Amino acid sequence: MPSLSLLDLTALGVFLACWIGYPVVVDRVPRIQARSVIAAMDEHRRRWMRAMLLRDNRIGDVNIIGNLMNSTSFLANTAIFILGGLLAILGSPELGQRIFGALPFAAAPDRVGWELRVALLVIIFIQAFFELTWALRQFNYCSIVLGSVPPGAEGAENRSRAETAATVANRAARHFNTGLRAYYFGLAALAWIIHPVALIAASLWVVKELHRREFRSVVLDVLRT
What we know:
Layout: H1 6-28, H2 30-33, H3 37-52, H4 59-91, H5 93-101, H6 111-147, H7 156-190, H8 196-215, H9 218-224
Helix pairs in contact: 1-8, 3-7, 3-9, 4-6, 6-7, 7-8
């Protein structure tokens, strides 16, 4: 049986509530989602695609999408490297236990407890990889839709294509944001290796920081102006 104490189970419950509950609330409750920086950027991407219709030379638009794809690809590749390191740690649990057991205030788990902690990190970064690669594909789709719009025309059909490109770009940005959140929660899950109380504190801190950046930031105020 897994050797998890009551404090471990409590900390894991708090982490799962934060990791799963936060996106459910902020992404699926329309009244809350509409006040986020993500919703504000959705409107700016729509304006971008409407402005794109008036340009004959769209090299700048292609470069913007290329930059978005590069940052997404970087994080997706990093997730693969992190997963490789985590799987290597799973293959030598004694080494990891010794390293983290030497940290001050660290509660060194037994083998099963250690493997559960690393497995949680593996699950988080698998989610990050899938979200980021799907975002990458959607940015690619957006570039193709953009390329299908003829230059110098603003008819109803082209406005519809611009709206399609904006919708695809917005969906890609949402998946990119979900993958980025996984990195934040991955750092929180790393605290479980030190102590269950550290996991609780880190989970709550990540939720606080995400909420501040997505709903209370200066950038959001500027975007709404």
